[in-house]
Amino acid sequence: MNKARPRDIAVDGRAGELVIGWSDGRESRYDLEGLRRECPCAHCREVRDTNAGGLTLLQPEAVSATAEVRGVSYVGRYGIRIEWADGHDHGIYTFEFFRALDAGG
Question: Is 48 among the domain residues?
């Protein structure tokens, strides 16, 4: 497992991406709508598990409306919390999660 840590984290609202610069020199970009759909909080996971037949937690229109980021804060040394424009901020996105999404990570 790659033990790289974020060097910096920024939101590129124009591109709709979260950008992480890693300590190993890599830069990764993550689609905000995808991150919103995959919120790791207990409630969102439960809804996704309940709707395992392919239904998503949020309809595409709702995701687009709530994929705007108000803020990002570190949670310990292992992840970040994203505050979405709709006020949802319960999910903790781990650095391991981000590296797993990054095909080269």
Answer: yes
Give a yes or no: residue 68 inside a domain: yes
Selection from 46, 49, 51 nearest residue 90 by Cα:
46
Sequence-separated contacts (24+) of 49-56 with Cβ below 8 Å: none
Q: What's the CA gap between 19 and 49, in Å, rounded?
A: 28
pLDDT digits (tens, 9 = 90+) for 18-68: 999 999 999 999 999 999 988 999 888 887 777 665 545 555 545 445 788
How many domains does the structure of the chain reveal? 1
CATH value at residue 37: 3.30.2020.30
The pTM of this model reads 0.80
